[in-house]
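To make this tangible, we now present a fold written out as tokens:
***
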Amino acid sequence: MVRKILYLIGPGCITASLVIGPGSVTVATKVGSLFGFDLVWWLAVLWLFMVTFTLMSARIGLFAGSSFMTLAARKLGRPFTIVLGISVFLICCSFQAGDVIGVSSSLAAITNAPETFFKVAFPLLCLTLYFFSPNIYTYIERLMLAMVVIMLGSFLTNLIMARPSLTLLAAGFVPKMPHAGQMRLFTAMAATNFVVAAALYQSYLVREKGWSSEDYSRVRADTIIGISVLFLLVGVITVTSATVLKPRGINVQTAADMALQLEPLLGAFSKYLFCCGLFAASFSSLAVNALTGATLLSDSLGRGGDMKSGSVKILASCIMLFGLGVSLCMGGAPVKSIILLQRLTLLTVPLLAFALVYLANTREITAHRKAGIAMNCIAGLACCLVVHLFMNLVKSFF
């Protein structure tokens, strides 16, 4: 049974590793500590949206005969495609520093070693992997699977130690309108777990894996398993926080705070377990995030989207070094600049969403396997969510 599951796991595991990082762990922690089980149902909705978009992207990788950006340039024009590529590249740059800090802070809490050492060591490790691995995709896939196993082991063990109420958990799956005080984190859950750029990258991972149209059933299973594991991890963190911190009125600000709060409540072992999970989440996102931005920008410029290409390696190095540099000189001004960059780049997320849905319904795709009414209806609702997030972001500027 285990061997069969491992046979199916591939690109979906990498996509899950890309999405779950310090941001999603922090948001899940805060949601549980503030609102308990109230927003668990929202994770189920976001899972449906993310599975749908990732499946649409995978179908492009299987059936289009060309990469996403190549197809986009043909159907929507090269200038539009370049805008998409630059947008994803900047989004990945803006989140890279957080991944570096997540890796260093979690390991420093476990080892008591200086954070600076880890801030430098792990980006350099990733650069070594990019430039000297004979098959980058294979190494990345195995590494991300290992990180997912560490996350599952760490976070699930903490959940078992916390012993959540199954009755309260079941009640959390009943949809209820969020009140005004919950809207900010309600939106943050969507922004950190329904990641259009990560779903889009699935089309490239499927091609890197070497799967073809005959492997569609495997691709579908891989996608559902990968995205389900992602939301299982986020849900486990939320439920653990809701069980341990909410009843005691403890409001944590970061994931690292949760690790410190778990120690007096569940014992020192729980702190180290949570830090191991946080490290795995941060390092997995750190390694794949740079490749995502580099691949999509390189392909949008017509330079190809193969992991082994020189342009992808150089652009990935730029993202990695940007995250390293910002994390080393992190202060008031850089933090504000990063936040502003994230907000500005998110303005183009609706373009990514609509481009993905449009291309997934082009003749190159539908001639082989139509998306179907149900999939397009779910994608339409997801696009409405993206537009809603976009409008809220625009309002925040004024």
Remarks:
- Residues 331-339 have pLDDT under 50 and may be disordered.
- The chain has one domain: 11-396.
- Residues 1 and 7 are 10 Å apart (CA to CA).
- The chain is about 80% helix and 0% strand.
